[in-house]
Amino acid sequence: MSGPEAPRRALLVVNPRARNGRFDLAAVKAELRRGGVETVEPPSPGQDCRDLIREAADSFDLVILGGGDGTLNGAAQALAERNLPFGILPLGTANDLARSLNLPLDPVAAARVIATVPARPIDLGCVNGHYFFNVASVGFSADLAGELTADLKRRFGTVGYAVAAIRLLRRARPFTVHIEHDGITETVRTIQVSVGNGRHYGGGMTVEEHATVDDGLLNFYSLEVAHWWRLLALLPALRRGTQGKAADVRAFQTTEVMLRTRKPRPVNTDGEITTQTPAHIRVVPHCVRIYAPPPRAQAQASLLP
């Protein structure tokens, strides 16, 4: 007769600068312990999470990241390199990846998922060698990332995105971008180009209504609007992910795309400016493993007799 199963060791990394980074984790740790997960916090909390994950590869069974999409973006490279499964405690402002994965936004409920649900593979996007989970964008969204301060997010939450967007909207101007994909080259004038790996981004926007983080595809759209006020009219569609049906929005699915602009323009990945154009963007299928509920279709199928 075998003895009790040894607990899994988890490196718990929390970003104290996240909007809810000071959340009391006592109940979270208790929930994890009940599920057979023992957490260890790094001795140097200020250490870069990428270095922590790289060092943890041989000593831990999984990583738990407490923070928002920026925290996850910073960890993506190391997670992919070390092939450690990970879980999310949604402590950020938008928590777009958590919402794309249908994870509970309550940290204690999220801990229960980590403790009880098997890890499953998901895709990553990659732009100029930098991994991302949700979306890479050039134009208005990238400018918004520079405008959206940590203080604004902390004070107003997702409403902070709207506050910053209104400040920026009247200054938005179309720019020229050359788009290369699937043997095609197109030159367009646009306000924003977005390339999504996941479904949600930007505190309530949706890349494409049917997108998933494990479909092996990127969802592209370009807002080729004549006037800034047209963005306001498109807002409901942008929230639903149906903007691709509009006449002044170019949309397609692909696995790889190159974006070139006359002058280098910043590229926003998951709310962080991480590189600039020219931007080579590709999908890396099933690159990392995460503790998350199964896809909806799979979950529904499992309920059938």
From TrEMBL:
Keywords: ATP-binding, Kinase, Nucleotide-binding, Transferase
Superkingdom of origin organism: Bacteria
GO molecular-function term, one example from the UniProt record: kinase activity
PROSITE patterns in the record: DAGK
Secretion signal, residue range per the UniProt entry: none
The DAGKc domain, residue ranges: 5-131
Gene3D superfamilies the UniProt entry points to: 2.60.200.40, Probable inorganic polyphosphate/atp-NAD kinase, domain 1
Alphabetical list of SUPFAM superfamilies matching this protein: NAD kinase/diacylglycerol kinase-like
Aminoacyl-tRNA synthetase is among the record's keywords: no
Keyword Kinase: yes
Biological process annotations from GO: phospholipid biosynthetic process
Matching InterPro entries: ATP-NAD_kinase_N, Diacylglycerol/lipid_kinase, Diacylglycerol_kinase_cat_dom, Lipid_Phosphate_FormReg, NAD/diacylglycerol_kinase_sf, YegS/DAGK_C
Record-given protein name: Diacylglycerol kinase catalytic region
Species annotation: Methylobacterium nodulans (strain LMG 21967 / CNCM I-2342 / ORS 2060)
